[in-house]
Amino acid sequence: MSVTARRELVFLLLQYLDDEEYKETVHKLERESGFFFNMKYFEECVTNGDWDEVESYLSGFSKFDENRHSMKIFFEIRKQRYLEALDRHDHAKAVEILQKHLKGFSRHNEGIFKELTMLLTLENFRENDQLSKQGDTNFARANMLAEVKQLIESNPVFCDKLQYPSFKKSRLRTLINQSLSWQHHLCQNPKQAPDVKTLFYDHSCGPPNVFDPSPVNKALMRLLPKAGVFPPIGSHGPFQPAAAQHTASLPRWMANPSSMPHQTVTAGPIGLTAPNNASSLRKRTPLINNPAMDYQTADAEPVFKRSRASGVSDEVNNIPVNVFPISFPGHSAHMLDSSKDLPKIVIANFSQGSAVKSMDFHPGQQSLLLVGTSIGDITVWEVGSKHRLFSQSFRIWDLAACSATLQESLVIAYTASVNRVIWSPDGSFMGVAYSKHIVHVYSYHGGDDLRNHLEISAHVGNVTDLAFSHLNKQLCITSCGEDKSIKVWDAVTGKKLYTFEGHEAPVYSVYPHRKEQISFIFSTDVDGKIKAWLYDDMGPRVNFDAPGRSCMKMAYSTDGTRLFSCGTSKEGESYLVEWNDTEGEVKRVYNGLGNRTVGIVQFDTTKRLLVAGDDFRIKFWEMDNVDLLDFSDAGGGLPASPCVRFNKDGILLAVSTNENGIKVLANANGIRCFHSIENCANDASRIASGTLVKGLVVRTSGASSSSPGASSGIADRSEAMPMVVSLNGDCRSFAEGKLRVADQLEKFKFWKMGEVNEPSHLRSLRLPDSLLPSRIVRLIYANSGGILALTLSGEHKLWKWQKNEQNVLGKATTIVPPEFWKPQSGISMTNDILETHHEDSVACFALSKNEAYLVSASGGEISLFNMITFKRMVSFKPSPPAATFLAFNPQDNNIIAMGMEDSTIQIYNVNTGEVKITIQGHCERVTGLAFSTILNVLVSSGADSQLMVWSLDGWKKQAGTFLKNPAGRVSKPLSQTRIKFQKDEIHLLVIHDTQLAIYEASKLKCIEQWVPRESGGVITDATFSCDCQSVYATFEDGSVSIITTRTFQHRCRIYPAAYLPCSPSTRVYPAAVAAHPSEPNQFAVGLSDGGVLVLEPPESEEQWGSMPPVDGGGPSTSPPGAGLV
C-alpha cells in the first residue's frame, strides 16, 4: 500500500475512533502513525501539566535533536517543568529534571545549563532578573505554549502534519455500507429484505427457505435469556413496622422485598414476558413499507441511485439492504396510520452558540423552551415568535458561601456545564443542575422575568440530574450526583429534607413519582443499578440491574400510567423498555436502537408515543408496539445521540443539532398552533404598534389533562394556563372566552413607572471610608461580593463584607456595613498622576478574570497591582500618551488592550513587556474597550462618538460606525463613549452622555436607543444588571433610572432625595455605577463627593418597580417614542 493510501486510511480510522469517543486510542494512533499532530490535544496536555504525555506525544513526530526548532521546543518544555518543580520547592524533582532532561542541552549551550543549575540556590527563582516577571503556573504555561506553538508551526518537520483533511462525516461507515451493498448486488439468490449481520465474512444470500445463521446470529441466540422477571429484592429485607401503613398500597415488588441474595442479570434484554420479543431481537426485519430506503449514514447516497454492476437487473438493484451499523425492524400496517401525528416538520431553528445538553418545554406556556448548554448557558426561547426571552451564563451567585472545594475548582476554570434544566410542575420555578456542585433555582414571573431564587451547594462534584415533585403538598427538588448520593430539598427555602445513600457508583438519574398515594423515587447509576426509595431512612427498597447494565433514565408517560426506561451500556448496546411497575418486570423491549451509540441515548414520552435520539436520527415508537413506527433526520445535521424533548401535548418536539443549535419540529396540530401564535402576534402589532405577543399558551383540542398520578420528575406539564391558542386561530382566555387585543392596550393606562423619592422607599448603605474625599471615577464589584473603587486622586478603595451573625454568608448587603480593607502591611494602591493633567486625565482600571491582578492608570504610568498584597508588581508605559481605557484579554491575562489618549489602541504583553501591535482608527482618545470571545473580536469606542470592531485574528477592522446623535441634542466636546457587553457577548450596551443604545456587535447595528428628557441632565454612567434584564443608568441631576433591557422602558426612577444627603452648598451626583455579580436588584453608585453607596429595593419588594404590562405576561416593545422619557 502506498504512503498516500496508508495516510488516508489512518485519517479514516481517526475520524471513526473520534466519533466513537475512543479518545486515548485516537491520540495513540496520531502519535504512532505520525501523520497528524493534534495541536488542540497538545495544548490540553501542556495546560494540565501532563509533561510525560507532552513529551511522549511530541516524540512521535520529532526527536529533540532533529533540528534547531525541535531542540528549542523540547528545551522550553523541560525548562518549564524544571521551574514548576522549583516553584513547589520540590528540589529533589528539580535535580532529577536537571540531570535527566536538561543536561543534554549543555553540549550546545553550557552557559544556560549553569544558569539553570544556579537557580537551585535561590529561595525563589524569580529573584533571578531574567525570571522576575515569571507569573504563576497557569500564566507561565500559557506563555510557554504560545512560544512553542510558533516553533512547531515554523518547524519543517510539522509542515504537512498540522492540517486535518476535509472530508465528509462518518466516511468510513459510508465506505463499508457501499462495500456491503456491492456484495449484495453480486448475490446469486438476492433476498427482498437481506440483513447483513457481520463484516467478518463476504455477504451472500442463501437459497430461498434455507436458514443458515451466521456465527454472530448463533452467538446472539446463545446469549438471549429465557423470559422472566426481576425478583422483588430489597437491600433491607421486609419493611419495618414503621412503613407497614403503606404496604397495602405499594407495588408488590416494593412492598414484599426478598431477603434472598440479589440475582445477577445478564447483559442482554431481560425480563421478557413474551417469546415474540426475544425472537424479534434474534432476527430483525427491514422497513418493508419503504423499499426505496437504504439505512446508511446521513451522507451516504442511496444504493439504488448508484451505477450497478453489469448484468444486475433493476429489480435486484432496487432491493434495500440493511447495512452497518444497524438494521431496523419493520412497520406494522396499523402503525402507519399513526405516523401523521408525529412531529416531523421543522418549524423553527435556533442558534444556541454552544452544545445543547438539556431542554424542557414550559408545562403551561407550551411554546416556551428552556435550554441548557455545555458551557453553562441557560436560555428561554419563545418558539412562536422565535425570540430569545432570557439568557444567563454560568455564574456563582454567592462565591463566599460555596465550599472550599468548589472555590478551588473555579479558580482553575470558572466554567461549568449544564447537566439538566427543568420546569416545576406549575411552571413557576425553573431548576438547573451544573457539573460543579451547584443547583440553581429561578422563579418565573411571566415573559422574560426570571429571578434568582436559590443557590444550593448540592453535591461534591458533578450534579447529574434534577427533578421537581410534590411531597405532602410541599414543592421539593430531588438531585443526584457524582458523590453517589440522592438529596431532597425544599424548593422554597432550600432546606435539605432527605439524603439517600446506597449506590456504589455515581448516580446518573432520579425520577420521583407518586402512585396510589405513595411517593417514591427511582434512581439509576452509571454501573446500571436501579434503586427505589421511600421518603424514610430505611435505605433502598428495590435494588436490581438495568437491562444490559446500561446507564439509563426512567420516565412515566405523561398521563402517569406507564413506566419506561432508556439507556446505553458500556459496550454500546442501547435499550428502550417498558416496565410493569406493579410486578417489577420488563414488559416490552423495543426494537430499532443502534448497537453502537455515541454517548448515552436520550428519550422522551407523550401519552402514547416514545421518541429517542439515536444514530443521527429521531426515532418514534407507539407504546403498544415494539417495532419502530417511523424515523426522521430533521433535514440532517443531527449528532449521533441528539437531545430530544416533547412539549406536554406532544405536538412540538425539540431536538439538538451538530451546529450548537436546536430544531423544533411539529405535527399538523402543532403547525396550526404555531401559525395561530404568528397571527395573534401580527394582529397585536397592527393594533398596538409594536406590542409583541409572547409566551402564548399552546393547546390542542382533544389533548388530555394530566392525571393525578402523572410524574413530576419530568415536569408534569400541568394545565394552569392563563391564555390559550385554539386550532381555529382564536386567542382565548379561560375567564372571558375570547381575548381582545385592544384590551391589552388598556393595561398601559393603569400601569405606572415606579418612583422612589423618599429614603423609606429603598434600602441604602454608605460604605465606611477613611480617605480624603475625591470623586469616584470607576467602580466595580468583585465576584466575591466586594466593591473596588478608583478615585480622581488615583487612590483605590476596597470594601469586603465579613461573615458574622448578622451576615452569615458574608455577602454584600445594605444590612451590615463592610470593612474598609487593607492588607496587614498597611500599604495602599495608588496610581502615578501627572499634576498638570489632574482634572483632564481619564482614570481607568481593569480586574483580571481570576481577580488576582489589577491594572490601573490615572494619567501617568500604568501600574499592575497584586490584589492580595496591594504591591505594585510592575509599572509600564509612561505618558504621554496616557492610557484612557484598559481591558484584560479574557483568554490570556498576560495580554492587555490599552486605549490611549492619542487615539490608538495598543495590545501589550505584560510578560514580555512589549507592545505586540498598535491599532489606529479613532480620531480622538479611546474611551471604551470590550472583548467578545464568542465573536472573537475587540470592540472599541472613542471620544469621537465612533464604534469599531477589530478581529482578534490579525487585528483587522471588521466594522465601524458613528453614534446616531438624538435630534436636538448637542453633546459635550470629547464626551466619553463607553461600551459593555451583555452576557451573550453578542449585544453591546453603548453609554454616551446623550443616550443609551443596544448594538448587535458583529455588524454594529443599532437595535434600541433610549434618550433621556433634557431636564434630567446628562448620563454619567450605566451598566447591565447581573441577569442582563435591566440597565442601571445614573445622571448628573442625581437620579438613577432602572430600564428594561428588552424594551428600553422605565421600570423605576430613583430621585436624589431618596438616597443622597441634602447639602445646599455642594452638588453631589452619582459618577459611576456597578451591578452586583449575582443579585440582580442590588447595585452600587460612586459619588462625586467620594462616597460609595449600595442600593437595594425595600424588604417588602422583590425588585425595582414592575415590568411594563404586555400581552400574555411578557414584556412589551415600546410604542413609537415610548423610550423618550
From TrEMBL:
PROSITE patterns given in the database record: CTLH, LISH, WD_REPEATS_2, WD_REPEATS_REGION
Organism, as annotated: Rubus argutus
WD repeats: 456-499, 919-953
SMART domains reported for this sequence: CTLH, LisH, WD40
Entry-linked Pfam families: TPR1-like_2nd, WD40, zf_topless
Protein name: CTLH domain-containing protein
Residues in CTLH domain copies: 35-93
Keyword Repeat: yes
SUPFAM superfamilies xref list: Calcium-dependent phosphotriesterase, Nitrous oxide reductase, N-terminal domain, Putative isomerase YbhE, WD40 repeat-like
Gene Ontology biological process: regulation of DNA-templated transcription
Repeat listed as a keyword: yes
Segments for region (Disordered): 1097-1125
This protein's UniProt keywords: Repeat, WD repeat
